[in-house]
Amino acid sequence: YRVGFTMEVFYLLCGVPLKLLLYRIFSVVNRNLALVMVLFAAIGAAIQGVILLAHYAPLVLLGKGAYLAAFTVQQREAAAYVALHLFDYCYMIALAFFGCFCLIIGYLVARSTFFPRFVGPLLAIEGVAYLVNSFGHFISPPFGARVFPFLLVTGVAELSFCLTLLIA
Asked: Which residues lie closer than 8 Å to 63 by C-beta, 6 or more apart?
């Protein structure tokens, strides 16, 4: 659990220079859209950073601190469970921003001359899927749960984009 938390923080830290590189690459296609893309990424990363507190909260709530004696074991377990649930829903907010990021980068890839054009529409479709997933969870959690598996299929877009970046 702690390793997973640490990896999420590491991922967010790595995202900062990555988004700067993406801005530099795509600013030649459309500078304003590349900036909006970075803003969506930055806001999503900020949201993820804050909600990581909810991810870490169970470790604190179920720990051995003397201050925890004010709560019963059941209260602490319930609070830890609520924190994890809150993390899930807050993560959906971050994924909505990621969906917008995917839509924009999909457009930029499609308009560029230095990426295979098929990757752009794939990224745009993935962006729509992330938005449908997030808003589906907000409006109807069972619907959102049915949409989530489609994100595994749309992950092909991210893999294609990453492979293209590595090859280029």
From this structure: none
